[in-house]
Design goal:
Blueprint (H helix, E strand, L loop, with lengths): L2 E6 L5 E7 L2 E9 L5 E7 L2 E9 L5 E7 L2 E6 L3 E4 L3 E3 L16
Antiparallel strand pairs: 1-2, 2-3, 3-4, 4-5, 5-6, 6-7, 8-9
């Protein structure tokens, strides 16, 4: 797949967004089978750059990911449009117990 597309796995996971040579690249939204959601930037099939994570309880946080791993949360983040512009404030300290695996 090349360009914009949608994949749905049998276990309920899904990805909708940009692809390059069958790999998630660019902007896209990944939803886990349990309902958690990541919307943001992808590189070589992994979360990479700025993104927004929505937890099962509905809490939404903006952070920075590198090679599939979240490296920090950003506080007081105002996301106007992931595809055009983003306003960010101060990074929060990374806590080990908050770490999430990338996909």
């Amino acid at each position: 797949m090349h360009g914009y597309g949608r994949l749905v796995w049998p276990n309920g996971r899904s990805y909708e967004g940009e692809f390059e040579n069958d790999v998630k690249n660019g902007k896209g939204t990944y939803q886990w089978a349990d309902g958690q959601v990541y919307t943001g930037e992808w590189l070589n099939g992994k979360q990479h750059g700025q993104g927004m994570h929505t937890a099962l309880n509905g809490q939404t946080r903006v952070g920075v990911w590198q090679n599939g791993k979240r490296i920090k949360w950003l506080e007081q983040a105002k996301l106007t449009n992931m595809s055009t512009s983003t306003t960010l404030a101060h990074p929060l300290e990374h806590h080990k117990e908050d770490a999430e695996d990338g996909h």
